[in-house]
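Sample 1 of the test manifest.
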Amino acid sequence: MHDFCPRAARNLAAVRQHQPLIHNITNLVVMNVTANALLAAGASPVMAHSPDEVEEMVALARALVLNIGTLTSEWVATMIKAARKANALERPVVLDPVGAGATGLRTRAARQILEAAAVTVIRGNASEIMALDQGTATTRGVDSVHGVNDAAASAARLAQRLGVVVAVTGATDLVTDGAREVRVANGHPLMGRITGSGCTATALIAAFLAVDPDPLSAAATALAFFGLAGEQAGAAAAAPGSFQVALLDALYTLGPEALQEESRFA
Amino acid sequence: MHDFCPRAARNLAAVRQHQPLIHNITNLVVMNVTANALLAAGASPVMAHSPDEVEEMVALARALVLNIGTLTSEWVATMIKAARKANALERPVVLDPVGAGATGLRTRAARQILEAAAVTVIRGNASEIMALDQGTATTRGVDSVHGVNDAAASAARLAQRLGVVVAVTGATDLVTDGAREVRVANGHPLMGRITGSGCTATALIAAFLAVDPDPLSAAATALAFFGLAGEQAGAAAAAPGSFQVALLDALYTLGPEALQEESRFA
Amino acid sequence: MHDFCPRAARNLAAVRQHQPLIHNITNLVVMNVTANALLAAGASPVMAHSPDEVEEMVALARALVLNIGTLTSEWVATMIKAARKANALERPVVLDPVGAGATGLRTRAARQILEAAAVTVIRGNASEIMALDQGTATTRGVDSVHGVNDAAASAARLAQRLGVVVAVTGATDLVTDGAREVRVANGHPLMGRITGSGCTATALIAAFLAVDPDPLSAAATALAFFGLAGEQAGAAAAAPGSFQVALLDALYTLGPEALQEESRFA
């Protein structure tokens, strides 16, 4: 059994016990799904994106999510403001560079955030991570055109250069801090047929960061939790509508013991 | 049987018959859920937040919902514009002060709206209502840290001071106009594990206000309706994903007779 | 068998094969539902509304959706910018004039877009299409107060005047290019009890336009596909919550053969 298996169980139990408040500045497509996923998992979500309140809200929260999925320029400034406050308070920050590589705005916005504030974890698909590393357009919309392995070198470089943990999600997920690399084999193909899967993964990483001081293990165990919930949902449903419902159910019913036994790290 | 039991039945039947148009200026997390809940219940929802059209839209609608869940300063001005038009046309207005107490922006916004226009019903959780009354931060994000009883005095004071009905929702709901107080015991714990429960309650109060001239009975009977739908959903589902689906189903299938028999007022 | 029956099958198979990227500038209520419906059907959705990126995103996409459901003035300018780029690149554009006729802003916005750029298909309910043609307020909120037949003359006039295909959806849908008219009889009453049905129809038309060069057949076959999915969902579910889930499932499981056999054109 991998070291992270008992850690996954402990993290999930801790999220359910402490119900950490997670502050999300996220995209308009997934706000509802993200809030519901965090609630089902046991965390407490809040969405707030006004420049007039993000600093106060970050101060109440245990972790901050920045997701650039439906970006405007104004939101970038607000995200940076929130991230800097989180830095000052030593709260973890997760960045989801949705669609980086697809448009200049998104690639620039993600890089601008990374320059202006310290991020704890970056979670993206292979194309997004490669775009952040290489600065060139490699995605098509918001879906990856690369496999996770294609992005391994980019992930490691980004992690080293920025001193962050990088999580690349796909059929098998890859999590690296530039020195250590962990693979997470949990998951189900239908997760790619519902919108906001990646965004939910990002939010769950934030919830696990709120209870685990090691960003590598927080990210990897959150992805195992989400992937295993996906497996359980896939066993209960064969199409995206009912899969989505079963996935939310699984985030609520999946217990620490099952997670410890069925997490697949490598 | 409480007087409100037949009233609940009449109100539900009237919503289904007249399908009142409900104008919602609400938060980005719950727009979809709110629209679906109103449609399932028999009302007709419309979402419109442009300052260039809210007055026209209010004029078409039978009630107005103001929900500050994902607030920006611009939206506050638009909400006030819409509320004043509703006042001029004598249409009921419901305010949902989501997260009042959590940040200064939200507490100020809620108070600013209450000063600038007449509101018919305020619906919040205990912490939000206490924050509106006391002006101090007592919430954690958007989830209440207080029970409904903690907020009873604040609710009564607010109701008297502002001449509004205040509905505090929680395990048992409390509705007061400052003189009369009604408790509504319908509900299910899973309602707290899906996002937007409170916002849906607020929207349903608006639908009932559209057909019932007494704001106290409109609010209380709407909460009984929503709570009973939650009970039926809880009997059909044991986790939040399927609960959410069953709740929408129950808002559609629950009939006036069942509501009359199973509403629990005190 | 109508000519469009095999065409419907070919179009659906082509969407699943090519997974065309569909760029949506759509309303805040339905963003999630639209993305999920496109994914379930086999297309690849992206939502992007920043004026700083819409031109780049359109260039990546195979079709553009403009939906004015929760409009502000800024968004109108962005929609026009995106539509002009789509015109330059010869990508199809679908306009959904949500609530045209209900407020001046919406009627003006829809007309302004139609003047400023070439649109391929307009998809609306009867009231919206009549409002676009006649320029007077005939709707109540965003739900139609007219039947499809009431809008037949308006649809034909609009189609001729603007050189577009007009699709009027309702109990039976009507699609016209001003010369030819097709009726689509597929559908289910519960589609009117969930929010965003019309918006989903619009997005699916965009997906079919991405694979079919004839806008009349693209629109009609997309509506048959959506209507038949609704029929299958209605056979599986009797209330809006479970219907919504079953509808997404059906968009995923419904195959070209069944579509060819059960499409009902006239």
